[in-house]
Amino acid sequence: MTTREFVSVFRSTKKLDTYIYVRRGQDWQELPEGLRSIFGLPAHAMDLLLTPDKKLARTTGEEVLNALEDKGFFLQMPEEQDTYIVDFKRKVEQHKK
């Protein structure tokens, strides 16, 4: 895992309280097509320098950095709507096929 990374955070225009963290300057087309179609047009929320010890509202810098290294993105979805999360993940999987 990298010790720090500049990241951009985008808000989903289709899904309430859904955000995606990517490396700053990353091409949106590099993300999986299924994720892009379900997420909708990205609305820029902020840029930040992320370190493993950074505490975020619903996650940690370490978790985001690990996801960026493994998948190239970190998807943050609302916690309080369990069926919403299951449906969202199911739609992403269906678009991959």
Describe the protein's architecture and organization:
The chain has helices at 33-39, 61-70, 82-96; strands at 5-12, 19-23, 42-50, 74-76. It is an alpha+beta fold and 97 residues long. It has a 4-stranded antiparallel β-sheet, with helices on one face. A hairpin with a 6-residue loop joins strand 1 (5-12) and strand 2. The protein is 33% helix and 26% strand. The model has no long low-confidence stretch (mean pLDDT 88).
Nutshell version of this structure?
The protein is α+β, with helices and mostly antiparallel strands. The chain contains three helices and four strands; from the N terminus they run ββαβαβα. The protein has helices at 33-39, 61-70, 82-96; strands at residues 5-12, 19-23, 42-50, 74-76.
Strand content: 25-35%
Helical content (DSSP H or I, runs of 4+): 25-40%
Structural class: alpha+beta
Strand order of the largest sheet: 3-1-2-4
Give the biggest beta sheet: 4 strands, antiparallel
The separation of the N and C termini measures 30 Å
Order of helices and strands: EEHEHEH
Task: Note the overall shape.
Answer: globular
Low-confidence stretches: none
Rg of Cα set? 13 Å
Number of strands: 4
User: Residue-averaged pLDDT, rounded?
Assistant: 88
| DSSP helical segment count | 3
Give me the secondary-structure topology.
Elements (H helix, E strand, L loop, with lengths): L4 E8 L6 E5 L9 H7 L2 E9 L10 H10 L3 E3 L5 H15 L1
Antiparallel strand pairs: 1-2, 1-3, 2-4
Helix pairs in contact: 1-3
